[in-house]
Amino acid sequence: MQVCKDIEVLGGTNSDCNIYLVDGTLLVDAGTGNYFGDTKKEIELLGAHPKTLVNTHCHFDHIGGNKKFRDWLKLEIAVHPADRKAVETGEGALAEMFGHTYRIMTVDRLLRNGSTIKTKNFNFEVISTPGHTPGSICLYDKTKKILISGDTVFDGAIGRTDLGGDKEQMIDSLKKLSQLEVDYLLPGHGSPKIGGVNFMIKQMLHLMTTNSMI
Questions:
Q1: Alpha helices in 56-106 (DSSP H)
Q2: Ranges under pLDDT 50 in the chain
C-alpha cells in the first residue's frame, strides 16, 4: 500500500513491523522473516530492486528477516553502531520473545547521527534517537517533511524503554524530534499519521516528563 508518493508500506502482519519500500531501492526494516514470502511477492509485483536495507533498531521484529532479504537481493545492511553487535550476533535482539533463534550475519554499513541516505526522490538524514534501544534511529526528509520513526514514536504512543532501552534517553530523543517539521509520520508499527505530528510528539514528551508514561 502506498502511504505517500514513492513510499510503499509492506508487512506489518501480527508481530511483524512495518516494512517501508522507498523509491523501489531502499528497504527500511525487515520484519521477523515469518512473512518473507508474502513481502517478496509484493516487491516483485512492484518491479522493485532494493539495494539497501536499513534497520531502525536491533529488535527481532525488525531484523529477523535481514538474512532472507540479503540472500535474495544481495543488498547491504545498514545500522547504527550502537546496535551493530545485536544485529550481527543476536545478543539483545530478543529473538526468544518471538519463538526464534537468531541467524548471525554481518553489517555492511554503519549509520551515525547526521549520515545521509539518498534515493531518486528522497534525501533522508539519519537521526540518532536512543531510548527504545541504544542504536535506535529515525530517517527524516526535511524537504518532504517525512519521518520514518521505527519504534521511537508511533501515532499516540512511544516505544518501550524496558527492553534494553532508557527512559532519559527517550526523553532526549523526543525533544530532538519535537523540533522537526513533520507532516508524515511513518512508524514501525501501526498506521501512518498525516498531520498533527509535531503536536502529538510534544504531547508524548509532556507525558514522559510528567511521569505519566514509561
A1: 60-63, 66-73, 84-89
A2: none
